[in-house]
Amino acid sequence: MSGHGRPGKTIWFLLALLFVSAALRADSGATITYRRVFKGSTPEFIEIKVSEDGAASFDIRQSSEDADPQPFQVSEPVRAKLFALAAELHNFDGADLDVHRRVADLGQKTLRYEKNGQAHQTQFNYTINHSATQLQTIFEGLAQQLEDRDLLQQRLKYDRLGVNDALVQFELHLNQRVLPEPERLLPVLDSIAADSKLVDVARQRARTLAERIRASESQSQ
Fold it and tell me: Other CB atoms closer than 10 Å to residue 215's CB: what's the count?
């Protein structure tokens, strides 16, 4: 008789495992999405998603181009800042951020918070809410950082004479302090600095920028 009881116990054990697995999936980490659509600009479409667990993706392109989200890395301090700012806005639940005044078209911005199958989002053209503007600044900075990185990589591969111009653009953004994590560009800067086939001015600029970023990292630690 005891042998007949084992299949039943096995079935209940498997059902329990499925229940726990489903519960874990339901209790997944939160995700914040920033989307900006601005016709006539370059780029026209930006969408960045950042999850609490560290996963992140970006899709930066013209509206006529096909969606092509790509993974990238966001540090824990930046993620923590994003989710803290979202919490200040009650994770966008019922948030009305637009100034509701006649201002120029600056592109439609969307902030979306998702967790456990529930989602809240808000949209605005222009806002004076401090937490919202900080979120926008960080996300736009991440987008610019990714564009600068991709441009440097593309120039290094396909247009070596244009590498120095791309470095000048990156240096401008670095001076403006709009890039949340400029250290993410250290690998490409080191590659440029070490490439003997590039003009010396580009190699030296890349070397100087890399040293500057590393020095700033050391001071912040």
Answer: 10
Using CA atoms, how far apart are residues 13 and 191, in angstroms rounded to an integer? 54
Strands of 56-61's sheet, edge to edge? 70-71, 56-61, 45-51, 31-37, 108-115, 118-124
How far apart are alpha carbons 163 and 107 in whole angstroms?
Answer: 30
Distance CA 121, CA 34 (A): 10
For the chain, the 3-state helix, strand and coil shares in percent, each to the nearest 5, are 55, 20, 30
Query: Could you tell me if 33 and 112 are in contact, meaning their C-beta atoms sit under 8 angstroms apart?
Result: yes
Decide: 127 and 133 in contact? Cβ < 8 Å: yes
Global confidence as pTM: 0.86
How many Å apart are CA 167 and CA 156, to the nearest integer? 11
Tens of pLDDT along 145-155?
A: 999 999 999 99
Give the start-to-end residue ranges of the domains of the chain: 31-220
